[in-house]
Amino acid sequence: MKIVVLVKEVPDTYGDRKLDLETGLADRASSERVLDEIGERALEVALSYADANPGTEVQVVSMAPEEASATIRKGLAMGAASALQVVDPALAGADLGVTATVLAAAVRRAGFDLVITGNLSTDGSGGVIPAMLAEHLGVPQATALSSVTIAEGEVTGTRATDAGVAQVTATLPAVISITEALPDARFPNFKGIMAAKKKPFETVSLADLEVDVDPASAPQSILTAVAEKPPRGAGVKITDEGDAGEKLAAYLIENRLA
User: Fold this and answer.
1) How far apart are CA 228 and CA 21, in angstroms?
2) pTM of the entire predicted model
3) Which neighbouring-strand residues pair with 11?
């Protein structure tokens, strides 16, 4: 079985994240860049299956600037057999529609029985790439899974709903996305880090994928405005002079919190 896992380099969630006010794009130089944790969990699902099923091939795929290769290589250190990175200057600022088109082409190039992604990235938080990817590839999708069981011809899992828990099944080939309910990813050990340096790492362009997209001239979504996050204002302080309860109740009512 061939499992493709989508991974992404993102600004560290524990650091400051800012927007470039001129371009409206994330200022990725403002904090340390790391492999998205939800992508690591998706990779853990694939590697756990590969550990128990010899002959399974796991490949990581990403669309990112050239300098992200060191971050993506962490997936190889964790245990993936190979990596494919799409690098092209035309993809700077690509929206979700363009991203899905390009990733679908990359996944086709890689070949797959199953594609595993996180449910949404921690930087863009779009949450629609898995469904759009499945549409482009013409395969079933099972998204937002809180548990996953991979079999030879199908994948099953559970999804939390407002009414309880739903059991979903998709025949392979398919695309699934997972939530943070899945286990934490393993840490790369020294042997894995050294082995990663020798594993296949393919870098391709839009021309290599035979994809004709120009995000700059034909965006599928348009950014109309961007502004700095307003500073956090001071909260309301209630001093107890024997009537603190009344003041608190009045505040809650006034702000429609009660």
Assistant:
1) 7
2) 0.82
3) 33
Cα 65 to its chain centre, rounded Å, is: 16
Per residue in 119-155, pLDDT (tens digit) is: 988 877 788 999 999 999 999 999 999 999 999 899 9
Contact between 42 and 98 (Cβ < 8 Å): no
Domains and CATH numbers, the chain: 2-209 (3.40.50.620)
- Reference 179, options 74, 42, 70; nearest CA is 42
**Alpha helices, DSSP H, located in the chain:** 37-52, 69-78, 96-110, 129-137, 190-196, 206-209, 244-254
Q: Which two tokens stand for residue 19?
A: 């927007």
- 124 burial class (0-12, 13-18, 19+ CB within 10 angstroms)? middle
